[in-house]
């Protein structure tokens, strides 16, 4: 069983204007096969034309494209028992 990954670089609060992209980044202690999930409020996010989810090694990135007022709310990133929110 692989050791659990922890969040070493937490999410930062950001402010963006309608129509801009919002970028959130988190860094883990190690590369992991554990399920990592992004949320807007309680809604799990998937990679699609509005959201881009990237994983590069230990860096996990969420890009919300052309944000609207409906996108306003808490963003959280969860891996295992660990959570970071902005």
TrEMBL record:
Residues 3-86 form the Ig-like domain. GO terms for cellular component: cytoplasm. Keywords: Cytoplasm, Disulfide bond, Phosphoprotein. Pfam families: I-set. PROSITE patterns: IG_LIKE. SUPFAM superfamilies: Immunoglobulin (SSF48726). It comes from the Eukaryota. Its main location: cytoplasm. InterPro entries: Ig-like_dom, Ig-like_dom_sf, Ig-like_fold, Ig_I-set, Obscurin/Obscurin-like_Reg. It is found in: Cytoplasm. PANTHER family: OBSCURIN, SI:DKEY-31G6.6. This is OBSCN protein. It comes from Mesembrinibis cayennensis.
